[in-house]
Design brief:
There is one protein chain. The protein is an alpha+beta fold. It has two domains: 244 residues, D-Maltodextrin-Binding Protein, domain 2 (3-Layer(aba) Sandwich); 220 residues, Dipeptide-binding Protein, Domain 3 (Dipeptide-binding Protein, domain 3, Roll), CATH 3.10.105.10. The chain contains 19 helices and 19 strands. Strands 1, 8, 9, 10, 11, 12, 13, 14, 15, 16 and 17 form an eleven-stranded mixed beta sheet that branches. It has a four-stranded antiparallel beta sheet with strand order 4-5-7-6. The two termini are 24 Å apart.
Length: 532
């Protein structure tokens, strides 16, 4: 309790530590969250690519188009832009910015801020910049391709015609946050466009502003008085770093926190049914999968790949050590994504797996290695594969290492099997299709390490062309069917065994209402939350 009282003071609570010997509940106008937040590197939306900082930025910044957290199925909606027009050649989108809105600083929000923000993201060229640069923007041309023609009109011209839905979905990503250009430029140092200052400060127009940040300790958000949307119901959000699930559970049970974000399956089970507490389940975008290097003589055999998919105990894992936190899912688009399918063609069938291995010419199996990151859920999955594949004669040796060690091997294409996770980078289906089903060049020295198809030496010119065709198709129904067909073929042909989609289980007080964790396509939204 002592730590919590000190943190509340840092959050500008007005009650003294001495006056708070015990807390039966959190303050009525404050949302208190227990969460692991040690991944924060920067709050600059042009740089932020970590889970926690992206979530916080989603509550601080606004976008040209954005998701309604209470209706994610509706897709992108007008936000700072009230409407947009498409040129006849399909390459230029003209956005009309709503007049009269302000940043948290009080500065007006204009098309010039929007142009500056997108230009800045390309010029800084930080990790997430590829989400925008894939439209042909470079540091040399972005000033001509992204232009404010007046204070409330923004034109974006891409290198070729793309599906409008593809472009707009990408503009909902954190990298496309609109920053207060005047405020940011006041903090520019050595030509960094305010990047160093924005690591621990914010310059947005969202529902909240960043009040304080203490690395590995806390983040405090306060309501933005200039917010143009529905005002936040809770005036302050206090996010406290709590690494251990058991500690988060204890704080929740004592009433010291409103929400616990990182509970283990055991702690979720322990609070389920507890009076005054509840668990909210929400499908997220993270997938668990195994992949097979096509450089391997064994693993490049289609019959072997099919056998391994039939030799996987999907339901057994989902109903035991993954119970409640992952659901069986067998293709590259997470459910809730545009074009996602729920087909599950595979289940555990040892005899069918054995027969396929015999057809492949390996009736006695073979020996291979799998690299696995030292995360318990991944190790548990790998051990299950080791067990069920072994029943058909595939002898799987596990090599467990750090995330860096396993990724180095994966990106060098020196693995047999990789067991890991993948999460989407933005809300359009191309975010996953463009890595699982696109290999722009299979040579070892091509530098295509960001493509999972390349990492597994899956040389697929036909699949690659289908993936590229889908991002330029403007007929919505046709585009959706292209992804449906692509996934069905992918399930049969690919060297990927996609197994599960994540379910986030957040424990919370029963009086917490209207919390959206963001589903598979967005991030947590604090501003609609109420406490009865």
């Amino acid at each position: 309790m002592k730590h919590f009282k000190i943190s509340l003071l840092a959050a500008a609570a007005v009650v003294s530590v001495a006056a708070m010997p015990s807390l039966a509940a959190t303050p009525k106008n404050m949302l208190v969250v227990a969460q692991t937040i040690d991944d924060i590197i920067s709050f600059d939306p042009a740089q932020s690519f970590e889970f926690t900082s992206n979530e916080i930025d989603n509550n601080i910044y606004s976008f040209l188009v954005a998701f309604d957290p209470m209706n994610l199925d509706a897709g992108y909606q007008p936000d700072l832009a009230s409407s947009w027009d498409i040129s006849e050649d399909g390459k230029t989108i003209t956005f009309h910015i709503v007049e009269g809105r302000k940043f948290a600083s009080g500065n007006p929000i204009t098309a010039k801020d929007a142009a500056y923000s997108l230009q800045r993201a390309i010029k800084l060229n930080k990790t997430p910049s590829f989400i925008l640069s894939q439209f042909g923007f470079t540091a040399d041309n972005v000033d001509e391709k992204v232009v404010a023609t007046d204070d409330y009109t923004l034109q974006i011209t891409t290198d070729k015609k793309y599906a409008v839905s593809f472009v707009l979905n990408c503009l909902t990503a954190n990298i496309a946050s609109i920053v207060d250009s005047k405020l940011v430029m006041e903090h520019e140092a050595d030509g960094d466009m305010g990047n160093d200052w924005l690591r621990s400060n914010t310059a947005g127009s969202g529902a909240y502003i960043l009040k304080s940040f203490k690395p590995n300790e806390s983040v405090v958000l306060t309501a933005n008085d200039n917010y143009y949307g529905d005002k936040p119901k809770l005036k302050q959000v206090f996010i406290r770093h709590v690494a251990e699930s058991a500690s988060q559970r204890l704080l929740l049970e004592k009433g010291d926190v409103d929400i616990a974000r990182n509970l283990s399956t055991e702690d979720v089970a322990a609070i389920s049914g507890t009076e005054g507490l509840k668990v909210q389940d929400e499908l997220r975008g993270r997938l668990m999968y195994w992949s097979a290097n096509q450089k391997s003589e064994y693993l490049s055999n289609p019959k072997v790949l099919e056998a391994m998919k039939w030799l996987t105990d999907y339901e057994g894992m989902a109903n035991s050590f993954l119970k409640g936190q992952y659901t069986v899912h067998q293709t590259f688009l997470p459910m809730t994504y545009f074009g996602a399918i729920d087909d599950k063609p595979y289940h555990l069938d040892i005899e069918k797996g054995k027969a396929l291995l015999a057809e492949a010419g390996y009736p006695d199996g073979f020996e291979i290695n799998a690299i696995v990151r030292e995360a318990q859920e991944r190790i548990d999955i790998a051990q299950s594969l080791q067990d069920t594949w072994g029943k058909a004669g595939i002898k799987l040796t596990l090599t467990i290492g750090t995330g860096a060690q396993t990724l180095d091997k994966y990106r060098a294409r020196v693995h047999d099997i990789y067991v890991g996770a993948w999460g989407p980078d933005y809300s359009d289906p191309n975010t996953n299709a463009g890595t699982f089903a696109l290999n722009p060049g299979n040579a070892d020295d091509s530098g295509n390490t960001g493509y999972l198809a390349w990492r597994n030496a899956w040389d697929i010119p036909a699949y690659s062309q289908r993936t590229l065709d889908a991002v330029v198709e403007n007929d919505v129904d046709k585009r959706k069917q292209m992804y449906v067909d692509l996934q069905k073929d992918f399930q049969k042909d690919s060297p990927f065994g996609i197994m599960f989609q994540q379910i986030e289980q957040a424990g919370m007080q029963a009086n917490v209402k209207n919390l959206s964790l963001g589903g598979a396509v967005s991030s947590i939204a604090f501003w609609p939350v109420t406490k009865d």
